[in-house]
Design brief:
The protein has 249 residues and is mainly α. The protein is built from nine helices and four strands. The strands form two sheets. The protein has a two-stranded antiparallel ribbon. A two-stranded antiparallel sheet has the order 3-4. The N and C termini lie far apart (47 Å).
């Protein structure tokens, strides 16, 4: 399946008005000269009229955040990506010991990271949806093979409509920060309950996901954070590496 306008193949979205599929650049009706642009314009006028009654922008953005919605496509992509991440997590122990606690740890480490991106982007008033990426899914699936030494977890990303460098950097930052909060919480629990091994694994797994996403390359969160504020990137990476080292000792 390709973009109806430019034949691009990555991160396709179905237009709610003309029902055709488009890439990230052409997903909006005004970007692909939608044949049903009149319906889009009418809905936009209604939304603008409704927003004019909300004088407090914070309350307006907060209301949009708590009323967050997931499209069917986004849910499907999240389910596939989460399943692969779960397999990668279980491969760390060669699939020998699997418990409900381990499954929950691997799932929330990935899901909470991605949903944090979506929630903050929505708070800023931006459209945001998770989309799986074919090559990322393949590499993540390969990483689920037990004897593969380096685990690559990048089945997809939350696509946002934000051009402001600071806001984009903060949306990228909140993903790794979410993993850091969970990682340090698991680390604390591992000291309180040292006989429960999954707390320590939760700390190290969250630290690893945070550290990987903070790499300043390509489409990873680290690149957006680095472009926005190098000092913030440095301290976040330093904290992440500290958690990673402590949790593995």
């Amino acid at each position: 399946m390709k973009c109806h306008l430019c034949n691009g193949e990555d991160f396709l979205f179905k237009c709610n008005y003309c029902k055709e599929f488009f890439c990230t650049e052409h997903r909006l009706p005004i970007s692909h000269s939608c044949s049903a642009i009149d319906r889009f314009s009418e809905k936009r006028k209604i939304n603008l009229f409704r927003d004019n009654f909300t004088t407090n922008s914070f309350l307006n953005n907060f209301s949009k955040t708590i009323n967050i919605r997931f499209s069917r496509t986004e849910i499907k992509h999240l389910l596939v990506a989460t399943f692969l991440v779960l397999l990668v997590g279980m491969s760390l122990n060669n699939y020998r010991y699997i418990s409900f606690e381990f499954l929950v740890i691997f799932i929330i480490a990935f899901l909470f990271h991605e949903l944090a991106h979506k929630f903050l982007a929505n708070f800023y008033g931006s459209w945001a949806e998770f989309r799986a990426e074919v090559y990322g899914l393949i590499v993540t699936a390969i990483s689920a093979i037990p004897f593969i030494p380096f685990k690559f977890i990048a089945p997809g990303a939350v696509i946002v409509g934000i051009s402001n460098k600071e806001k984009l950097g903060k949306v990228a930052l909140i993903g790794p920060m979410t993993n850091l909060v969970m990682g340090f919480l698991f680390l604390l629990l591992s000291y309180l309950y040292p006989y429960l091994l999954y707390f320590n694994i939760g700390a190290s797994f969250n630290a690893w996901i945070s550290m990987f996403n903070l790499l300043p390359f390509g489409v990873l969160d680290g690149q957006k954070i680095f472009n926005w504020n190098k000092v913030v990137w440095f301290f976040t990476m330093a904290i992440t590496m500290t958690l990673f080292i402590i949790s593995y000792n």
